[in-house]
Fold this protein.
Amino acid sequence: MRARAVLLVAVVLLLIVFGWLVWATLYRERPQPASITSDQDARFLYGSIGNESDQGLPYWVAVVLPRVFGERYVPGPGGYAALLPWEEGQELPVGFAKKRVGVDRVGFNCALCHTVDRRLPGHDSGRVATAGALHAADIKGLAEFFTRSASDARFNADVILTEIDLAYRLSIVDRLLYRSVLIPATRERLITLGRQLTSPHSAGGWSRAMPASAGR
Amino acid sequence: MTLSVRRWLIWIGGVTVVLLAIVAIYAAARLSDDTAVAYQDVRDHFKYGSTGGERGWKRQLGFGVPYWIWIALPELFPDLLPDHRRGQGYASFGMIYEDGKDPRFDLPIGMSMRRTMGIDRVYFTCSVCHTGTYRDGANGARQIVLGMPANTFNFGRLAQFLSVSAKDWRFQSSYMLPTIAELADTRSRAVLPAVPYRPATMGAIDRVVFQYVGVSLMRDQLISLLGRLDFIDFGKWGPGRVDTFDPPKALLGFRMDTARPEELNGVADFPSVWNQKARKGMWLHWDGNNCSVDERNLSAGFGTGATPATIDRDAVTRIADWLWEPAQPPPFPSTRIRHDRVSRGETIYREYCQTCHGTSKAPFRQPGDGTKVGQVTPLDLVKTDRHRLDTYTPELARAQGSLYAGYPSDADSAQCREYVEDVCKPVQTEADVQRFRALRDRCYPARFQHFRKTSGYANMPLDGLWLRAPYLHNGSVPTLRALLDPQPLRPAVFYIGYDVYDFDDVGFITSGPDAEQRGWRLDTSVPGNGNGGHEGREYGTELTRDDKDAVIEYLKGF
């Protein structure tokens, strides 16, 4: 009788610990840094709209994806920079919002499409203008890049982790998570993203936060 | 009967378990091995110290070439060497072996060694591109100068050698291992200088590892690394020059088959690396694309194989700290200066040159003196060859912002934001240095945040100018005297990589039978090698012969 009670307590405790671990590694949110949230422009360009975990990519997959597949599925040299406005010195292109939800993730926000790159080709550093009506980004190219990368035979944990190992020392837990959960799930996600990017404001399309009619 | 069978089984089982444990312990010890050859003297550390490029991380095996393979390659493929001669190591690529070293078994300056995964492995370190030599006559003694551009080293030719030998049918263990065994045997009988560490002869286990895995793995690594760089024409580099910003495009996975031709031809002269303290806050690299000495170091470190995951932070910081101030250029031989002309030269320098190039000694500029040293002069004004500028694309400047992503771990802390802001500020006082050191110790390495696309070339300080020939960013003008001539009078074809010095014209000897035989033919009509620009009245090319002489005498003292 007493042994059974001890066992029960142990199981409950284990479940709690396991549950906490799952929450901490996959769901615990950390706010974006003040340098993004407190500056209006930065917030538009890199601020989270809360879609990281259900419409975003694991951070390291987002970083290395063009390093693995850019050679084949981006039309010119430059990785994301060949497709999207990107401010010099920033770690990610405009419209990529980095936020920790369990692990670091990248969501996509309005600035991805609604930003003008005022840089003249081949000339000095330019500034991007926020909320422009013109689309400077090659969204169709990005959608294709995502879809084709996900469909490539080399899209697997071995190849992606090999590239991450050139860039960062993942912790043992993160490594395990990337291998068994995050990378496999990203394949499906990229295909969905590719579809959403081609018709962003339709039903089932871009942001849940936005009515289907937004942006016409 | 049954008892004895049982006893036997227990014995066999026990021995198996013990053997497995021994193998496991051996494998664990071997795989976790990571020891760089250490050097007491910081100058030796600069010459031979590892930046971490040999070692791997998880699925990355690292860039290190096993010592015995490195040693065996020139012996195995003498026909692929520039001079087809065995027994000279890599000397025919212009790599420098110090006096007393045996090129068959010792490493040249610029190669470092680290024991990782139980194998002694070698790879490039900073000095491979930043140590050169000069002689004061064909029979003069060779002077090795640390921090000077590697004027004799033909990096492109070495890359070609490695690329071709990796694809050669002889690159396989059945050819390689007997050569290695022979070399080991020769070494055991040779009289060699004392060095801090000399790799042991291959043991039985090593031989098995190399027989079945090591050699083919190395071949595979070389082919895939050099295959990624296939779009680069290594034959265009020549000694003392490198295409700096095309290799990072490969690292970042850029698609190069659709690149415009002007993106693929950025050959640049190796720079000197002295006096970095004074360069903090100046725009660095030939086109002035980054103001952070730290980022510039880490960026160059990729060339030594050091990735964010493998970099040996302490070893790199030790080199950086030496280049910060202790490393200084040697003075021009005083007896070769016509001292009576110097003061006239100084007057002219002040009028024509100082605004852009600063004063002769560090810190080269004073607050509020109006100098533009370390600033970028638009290409429209300086009009030098545009290829190096064009090869650095806006896309590359942006994509470099993702290098060293994730570092430092507390990037959002106020301190590390302060570091990022401080990293491009000039040093004024000793307190500035102390504060910056404290920030750096905590926040280095950090993600690249200062790369930018420019529209011209940076005005360099001129410390150690005499050893930085040939001149301009692409090494297209052999001497200072030629640089003071307008383009039509500058040599159209000359030979670089020969290290005998011309103390009158200030530069290396680039013509004559010896230079032609030892050097590499630089043709200024080849795209990327253009020798125009930096000319006209304000650049001093219209000065009288006498005044040019005077400026040259003054510049000797830099």
Chain B has a mean pLDDT of 95. The first helix of chain B runs from residue 2 to 31.
